[in-house]
Amino acid sequence: MTKHQYLLLMMSWMTCMLVTSAHDPARDLMLALITNPSTSSISSNLENIDSISVSYHEARDKRIKYGHHEAVHLYKSLLRNQADLTAASRIAAAEISPQRHDAACPIPLDTKSSIENEKIRDEIKALKHILEKSNFSNQHIQRLCGIPRWSEVIDKGVNNLKKGELLGFAQCPIYLTPVKAGTHSKLPSFLDEDIANNNSSNSIEELALVSLKSLVSLFLLGFAVPRDILARFLIGGNSTIVLMESLGLIYPCEVDDSIMVPYVHIFPLDINLVNEKNDATSKQSQTSIYIVTDCHPNILGQATVGTKQDGAVMYIGPDSLALIQHLPLQSQISSIKQKFFPEFFSIADFCTGSGIQAISALAALQLYRPNARAVCIDINDRALRFVQFNGLLNGVEEKIKPLKGDLLSGDVVNMIRSFENTRTSEIEVSKEGFVATLKESAPFNMILANPPFIPVPERDSIEKRYGLFSSGGASGEVVLRTIISISRKLLNVEGGLCGIVSELMNAPTREVENTELFDKIQNWWNQECKQTISQTAFRGVLFTNEFPISAKTYASRRTDTESDFQCWLKHLE
């Protein structure tokens, strides 16, 4: 009897793909809806913008090349002489920023006292309560940005929408672009107007709205906000400020301690629940989750953070969300026999980062498979801490097992071989740690991955800008290849589902026939498989971008200097 595994490759196939560009015009369009240069300023307008831009560019360049501390004095000088309410500038101007990054998202540990651990748990619960009371959800943020309901768009016709406007209907506010250093001397117009009008909210709805505006300004747009404004507008006022500082989410500006600076992003996501009755035709209900990540490159300006220069934990971008929104979990469960989905449903999330994929899947399965569990794998200790924090924030900490592991290690290669070798005693596979835990947890009903995929040229000035979560080696395929190869060995042969989002160069499109990529993926999938597994059939579904972009366009979006642009272009071509 032929058994089936399902491989879902959520890859935006392009000549050179755009998935994680920091210069997304669609998101810039949405930001324009909520920022208004004509509103009253908290402080004086920027003067001599040309010279300021050059100074910020020089400061940023020095920070990238020589590290955070070498550029602090430049950013401090800029802040003392210019009006700037961006978190990007104020993080870069703080000597103590690395220590603050280290303190973000504390978790209970065996080395801490029971009182300390209980305090952390209570504070995380209190944070979730504030987010919920503030209506900090994607749907409310869409209303704040003037985005109509999807049902209204359907009635008027989707074809009337411009290409960029479609991003506004994502299940997470990735349509908002965090502000860069030196670009804003004013707060967003929706918050500035409340300040100018001296709004004093009384109703529950009004309190929630001004609190929502404050949270969006801090944790999505990356504005530094005066403390007195947050005390007035945030639900909980000063107590909430103290709570967020205790959790390492915001801190007083080192140059002006009357201004609070966000050190992380908090993303709300809408998650479709898998129908409890296993009925694909029923209307899906939704739940909300919250994911904390490190800041967008627009804010950080670096690929590493903290005193140990840990890799930054990836923000939520279009690629992260693509896998969540397109993973056919409901239809998969509806079309497969019940026995393929046992009560114990296991998930492996490779390159987990913030844990967004695993936590989203657990949330989606909460009614249908409440006993589902996830193993979250990453090489980055910081990422695994964020996973545990986000697990606590969403009430799934008991369902998540963080696991540190290097997918490019020799143990992983040997593990792949050991699955096909009857004399496994001759294969050197560690009996403890990463590989042993994976083998013990297998087979998995679902494998998810959003691996690093940018094909980074081997030039120091470029490599420093790309960290663990983004660089896929010179080809961009180094980690992807391993995940596809290992997934074949770990995936349940009866209805297992593997979902991966990535980007590859010179992929097939509607207009361009190209089987090279398909052959490559199939070879990775079948790597070293013997007859016992080769009898198992698998089906692959490829989701692609409709509009490919050229290598020249891709290179221009990856750099802001001519020399690096030429290096990128030569590397891609």
SSE layout:
Elements: E1 4-11, H1 25-34, H2 49-66, H3 68-81, H4 87-92, H5 97-103, H6 114-133, H7 138-144, H8 150-156, H9 189-196, H10 204-219, E2 225-226, H11 227-233, H12 237-246, E3 250-252, E4 259-262, E5 265-272, E6 286-293, H13 297-300, E7 304-305, E8 310-311, H14 318-326, H15 329-335, E9 346-350, H16 356-364, E10 373-378, H17 381-393, E11 400-404, H18 410-418, H19 434-441, E12 446-449, H20 460-463, H21 478-490, E13 496-502, H22 516-525, H23 531-534, E14 537-542, H24 551-556, H25 562-572
Parallel strand pairs: 1-13, 1-14, 9-10, 9-12, 10-11, 12-13
Antiparallel strand pairs: 2-4, 3-4, 5-6, 7-8
Helix pairs in contact: 2-3, 6-12, 11-12, 18-21
Description:
This protein is α/β, with parallel strands linked by helices. Helix content is 41%, strand content 12%. The chain has 25 helices and 14 strands. It has helices at 25-34, 49-66, 68-81, 87-92, 97-103, 114-133, 138-144, 150-156, 189-196, 204-219, 227-233, 237-246, 297-300, 318-326, 329-335, 356-364, 381-393, 410-418, 434-441, 460-463, 478-490, 516-525, 531-534, 551-556, 562-572; strands at 4-11, 225-226, 250-252, 259-262, 265-272, 286-293, 304-305, 310-311, 346-350, 373-378, 400-404, 446-449, 496-502, 537-542. A seven-stranded parallel β-sheet has the order 11-10-9-12-13-1-14, with helices on both faces. A three-stranded antiparallel β-sheet has the order 2-4-3. Helix 6 packs across helix 12 and helix 18 packs parallel to helix 21. The protein is globular. The model is unreliable at 11-51, 419-431 and 531-535 (pLDDT under 50).
